[in-house]
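Design review, sub-item: ligand-bound model
Attendees: FS, YL, KQ
YL presented the inputs for the 4'-phosphopantetheine complex:
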Amino acid sequence: MIAIYPGSFDPITNGHLDLIQRGSRMFDRLIVSILRNDAKEPLFSVEERTEMLREVLHVYPNVEVDSFDGLLVDHAAARSATVLLRGIRAISDYEYELQMALMNRRLGPQIETVFMMAHEAYSFISSRLIKEVFSLGGNITGLVPPSVESRLQARLQSKLKGVS
Ligand code: PNS
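KQ shared the predicted structure:
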């Protein structure tokens, strides 16, 4: 069974990583796919995010990294995936996730969305919050992989140099 775990991953957090680890034990193959046409003005380019994901995911032999444009269900069909994997942290995620899952079911009835509960240790974190806290000098150690923390540090420094 092939599953797709889609998202922005700007950047990958330990919450994503936990879900990927658990997902890799459930499915024969797990494809972590980055949305390309992201209107959210990402901090890291798709290429940088692909590199970051590969750096931390190369230890999982059945996990690969990809990116996609357009509809998720089309990407899933093109990759012969029958499952979309998503994480739910809190009840506030549920409404958005339900909407997406039902729309995706309508668009691609052969593809099933599977939800996993986020690990309680990471249920309060999001990529957005990580970026905000880090840019304000807060400690994010243990919430993202060390390689991601280094990249955030480098990006923050180059941004500061840009404004000075
Ligand atoms: O991690 P995110 O940013 O919440 O992921 C959102 C994502 C990438 C899963 C979602 O925006 C998506 O699937 N976009 C692709 C476009 C699409 O298929 N839209 C219709 C699905 S309801």
